[in-house]
User: What shape does this take?
Amino acid sequence: MLHEESGREIPLFGYNKSSVPSLILCGELVPFAQMEPRMGSVGLFYIQLLRNSLGCTINELWMDPTQGRFCRGPIGPKCWDWPKRDFSVIVPSDVEFLKEDVITRYFASKQNDPALLYTLTYSCHYERLDGDIPATYVISGLTDSAIAFVENVRWESWEGCLDRRRRMRDGTRRFRLRDGRKIAVDSFSERTAWLAQALSVFHAHNISLDEAFSTTLVFPRLELTGTLQKSKHKRQRRQVSPPIYLIVLPSPYPLYHWSLDPAGQTPPLSPEMCKYFGLPFKLFLKVSPGQCSWPTKVYKLIHDYQIARNFDPKTSDFARSLGYPIFTVIPAENRFQEIVEEHPNMPTDSEPVPDSNLSYQNRAEDQSVEEEHSFLLELLFDNTEGATKETETVSRKGTKRSLGSTLLNPFIRGFRFLTCNSPDVTA
Assistant: This one.
């Protein structure tokens, strides 16, 4: 049997039934699953774009080495379980686009700003961090001090029973509830926002492009998750109800509530109403701090690209044109002063953080949250006022590096999660 796709006949395949199953190919095509473990981050991102361009799953991608192209075919060996993301970018199917320089030149020639920046974010050196990272900030390796930061958090939903998002004028994110059970909302890492305006920060601090490689972006990756109750009656109530929305405010701590008002201006749904619809009144939080750094060639490419697009790299106009949040530059004389004021309504005692060791895909979906009546999350960060304790050191290219209190204390003060039972917190 032959399967015809993309104007070409593709031979089908089968598995033997021995104790060690193996793939039996009837032709020269190679399933993507055999290439996946050896691909870099940029190449994997290109595959994400390609599968959307071809309208298929990753398991249906095959490579034809004789023609140097990818094509869509029958379902092949299983690939990684990637969350489905909708990209509107169309890319060619040539295998040459697995190379970082090829795909970046392609998007630069198309003047596709978001696609170019998003591709370049995968050209970074990434590391996971330990400890509390309350805000996204930039560290200069030349002075071991923070040079810029962005306070508010943007939210996105890629999978589950929420639509992607709708942004309101004040930056609030609105997610409409759809059919399904899993709720998952992630924060942006702001890597694209940083690359779009990094040159303006460098200019403010007299950092040359040859020194840009020493700059590190440190950010908290926040995940809010929960599950809808699977009761048949509560599912029917959700279906016949007016549209239900999850409203998440643009805040350094996740302030959210359920609402029947698409503008989020009416009082939030009460715990009783959430229970009536089977909505989790309280979502679970996972924090995964990380840091990224880029080679000098990336910053030079962005410099030349901005000039070609008639933007002044010394300003943040390029980032503003894309609607990205603008980083606050920390003047050299103020690096070690307080940057964030203590929130006036913060409680004095901290509460335990929800278990963040559970994997993203293995959380217990049936964990009941009906008894939870706290409107928001527990306190995420301990009160560090007056503290001088350094955070745990992290390994960066074989060298132990400490994100000490000298850098973190100005940011950590004031960034704590509130427990609020008042219905007055609206968008």
